[in-house]
Amino acid sequence: MPELGSVRKPRRGWKIAGVAAFVLAIGAGGVGAATATSWLPENPASATVPTVAAPTTPPATPVELALEPKQGTVSYNPAVPVVAQVQAGTIHSAILKETETGATTDGELSDGGRKWVSGSALAFNTDYTFSVTTMDDNGTLETQASTFSTVPAANEADMWMYPANGSTVGVAQPLEFHFSEPVANKDAVEKAIRITSATGQKGAFHWYSDTMARYRAASYWPANTALKVDIKLFGVDYGNGQIGNFNKTNTINIGDKVVMEADASAKVVHIFINDKLARTFLASMGDERFPSAAGFLVLTADKQRFATFDAATIGLKPGDPAYYGKLKVEYATRLANSGIFIHLAAPVAIPYLGKVNLSHGCIGLDREGASWVFNNMRPGDLVHTVGTGHPTNTIAPTDGFGDWNIPFARYANK
Prior knowledge:
Blueprint: H1 2-33, E1 65-68, E2 83-86, E3 90-98, E4 104-105, E5 107-110, E6 115-118, E7 127-135, E8 141-149, E9 156-157, E10 159-162, E11 168-169, E12 175-179, H2 186-191, E13 193-196, E14 203-209, E15 212-217, E16 226-232, E17 237-239, E18 242-244, E19 247-254, E20 258-263, E21 268-273, E22 276-284, E23 295-298, E24 303-310, E25 326-336, E26 340-344, E27 363-365, H3 367-376, E28 382-386, H4 408-411
């Protein structure tokens, strides 16, 4: 079979060559070079990369800022708080300052940072700048500034009170309030003045004019106690754009209950201290032409160790039998603005004390009596005059303090 053997040799050589070619192929390019390329990863440069959308911020709810007072406001009441408030977002900062000086007014945030309110009163007659920075839900800041001015000096209303803070007065002393401007809103002013007595006495105001009012209780103040007068007039509208300018608390001390009972018919005075008779003095009071005022009078603060009475001040002229020219007196304690005093009787009247009424309406005493009253009785002590023959001839309420001649029901009815 030599033919068969010669045929197989070439086939074996081809097989070896095929294997060698396969090995070379592996050496040159690896297995992958000798086979199909479908199983290889794609070329990164030619691959499609998925697109990722950039994160987006939803639009913030617009911040709505409300300011009080509004831009350009004039005559703003300095007692009314300044307010900033937002409906969305928060208040990042608020600065309230005097435009001229830069002095700031404190304030406080509340309602989760959505409201700012000033914490102290403003000044009268002053320009202010109010700058508020808000922040929306996305953290964006925005600043708004407004300007306004407070009540001008021409509309600033004051008040003073008698007796003064810390004074000691008698049990019959009404409290008197004088206002620098006419008061139209009387109820508002009365509510702003609170009077408290040691026993809780209730009293009432009585307005004698638009600029003067008094306050008393139905009965005398309790002896040896104190009254607290809490005045909260700052920012109170008196009316007609006039605004109260202060708050203050006064204390008025009440001394002993001292009452002089002056009897014109008996020509004598009895002085009671805390309802016990303390002194009795003979007196000379008003004559028939000039009778002493009846009813209740209250000692004023006017005391003159030496005084001169001028007859012309009560309408007397030379030639009139009652004319006395200019008379020097001692220990003069005033009861009424019209010229009623307790004083040392004139020398010519001393022999007639307790016998004849010779005065022009005053209460004349001897030196002991006049000096005792001068040194021991004080403003607010009471004089009750009887026996004049003219019981309705009382002093006018504002001729001194004639308040106690008005029944309390009528007094409290303004």
